[in-house]
Hints:
The complex is a heterodimer. Helices cover 37% and strands 25% of the residues of chain A. Chain A has 9 helices and 10 strands. Chain A has helices at residues 41-48, 71-76, 94-105, 121-131, 146-159, 176-193, 204-210, 228-233, 235-242; strands at residues 3-12, 15-25, 30-34, 56-61, 64-65, 79-82, 164-168, 196-200, 213-218, 221-226. In chain A, strands 6-7-8-3-9-10 form a 6-stranded mixed β-sheet, sandwiched between helices. Chain A has a 4-stranded antiparallel β-sheet with strand order 2-1-4-5, covered by helices on one side. Chain A is globular, with a radius of gyration of 18 Å. Chain B is mainly α. Chain B has one domain: ABC transporter involved in vitamin B12 uptake, BtuC (Orthogonal Bundle), CATH 1.10.3470. Chain B is 70% helix and 1% strand. Chain B is built from 15 helices and 2 strands. Chain B has a two-stranded antiparallel sheet. The longest helix of chain B is centred in the N-terminal third of the chain and has 26 residues, at 39-64. Chain B is globular and about 50 Å long. Chain A binds chain B through residues 49, 70-72, 75-76, 80-81, 83, 87-93, 96-97, 99-101, 103-105, 108-117, 119, 138, 140-143, 156, 159-160, and chain B through 183-184, 186-192, 194-195, 197-199, 201-202, 204-210, 213, 216, 262, 322-325, 328-329, 332, 334.
Amino acid sequence: xxxxxxxxxxxxxxxxxxxxxxxxxxxxxxxxxxxxxxxxxxxxxxxxxxxxxxxxxxxxxxxxxxxxxxxxxxxxxxxxxxxxxxxxxxxxxxxxxxxxxxxxxxxxxxxxxxxxxxxxxxxxxxxxxxxxxxxxxxxxxxxxxxxxxxxxxxxxxxxxxxxxxxxxxxxxxxxxxxxxxxxxxxxxxxxxxxxxxxxxxxxxxxxxxxxxxxxxxxxxxxxxxxxxxxxxxxxxxxxxxxxx
Amino acid sequence: xxxxxxxxxxxxxxxxxxxxxxxxxxxxxxxxxxxxxxxxxxxxxxxxxxxxxxxxxxxxxxxxxxxxxxxxxxxxxxxxxxxxxxxxxxxxxxxxxxxxxxxxxxxxxxxxxxxxxxxxxxxxxxxxxxxxxxxxxxxxxxxxxxxxxxxxxxxxxxxxxxxxxxxxxxxxxxxxxxxxxxxxxxxxxxxxxxxxxxxxxxxxxxxxxxxxxxxxxxxxxxxxxxxxxxxxxxxxxxxxxxxxxxxxxxxxxxxxxxxxxxxxxxxxxxxxxxxxxxxxxxxxxxxxxxxxxxxxxxxxxxxxxxxxxxxxxxxxxxxxxxxxxxxxxxxxxxxxxxxxx
Lengths: 244, 341
């Protein structure tokens, strides 16, 4: 068990956004969380990574309780998230952004004297090759297309050597071509670096294309969980989300 | 040949290995010129060098970290007071007193920065103003210790009373400090500050303890202002509460904005131009702030990147302007007033 949440809950005033969610993610699994808008998918991610403080419940990662840890510590342990809206560094180049993640992962972020430019260049180049951003290596973040920004965010995440990657709608706003490439990439990453991926997505072709396990959230509660076939056959899921 | 091409040609040595020779030449000019100009211009050059550090101090927070500070003068003033008080009361070596002065400025930055760096956006800016004004009132009201509105006077050791010697003493401190600043902003730590500036929400999620980095940056900025302070107080033969205020901090803001906040050398250039304008125009008219105000208006309206930022924008493709745009778009402006920290 890589990630486990126990009765994770969060309420905003009277609205219970995430309601006692128990979720297990196995190692080397591609796990999708689906559900209608407002089901609590993003809030759930925010609770796991401490973007928000959980109201109740526990998050256990690699057998250790990480509920009380600040975000950067969670990240240092190998649980990395990407944001829904491609969250990148507009004034840094692609290389510089990924390099910073690598530097931080290697514990060099407090080095005050060596020029950062020359550090871990091969690692950075490898990551950029892998996600297909090698050609844009020296381009500023804000001049990238939306799809490339998403890929850059993924590259930054890879720079942190994730064991578990949380992706919030990894293909949102991408063309069909880019979507297919991203799906390929995620599968390839799982196979090559034993990455576990937990993602949310509205595009059902992506969900049923790569997910091995699916959890369905509705109004903050888990209403179904299982293999894609099981979830697809579930009556309740069809009623609230898949639309028959 | 377009003007842009000419500028590019002139600046091209800076993109090559030969840049070292150009820097050596610059150094030679800095050392050579003052021996051939009058005392007055030596004074002006010294002030330019000191103010460069003050402007860099502000820019570490604003240009590199995206945190607006109107309080850098608090650390300049604190260091100046600490130096003079130590020198008067203990009669220790002048240099040792200066070092203590810098450390006191840094300590003040650590104490106040601990509170300030918890905030961001407009609240950060207001808190720095609060600290500057508090420093002003402490020095203004504590008559027995700080001399109140009269401030404190100091006569530096005999050897430093000569303008040329003091100029050289200033250079010996300012040049290594500027070199160290270059290493700092290009180091992994400097890169992490740019990350905080560009996207504070994201930065903890690449494993960077943001509050710690912000506090370290704040203290380093404080140390640079303090370094300017211990050079300024003996140069000025004294210090008064007015060197601790938000108004004085505003000088650093103007210098950095004038030269270009997203560039390394911008604040230095800004300090040089600002000091020159100050001296030159105050010769001509007592309304010199009006002229400087007009210059600022032009910069803000037509040269948003400051002088150097605008030049770099025109030199796309060169090493200086390698990323093309120096200014972020409005939407991504890191200096817009965010509330999350």
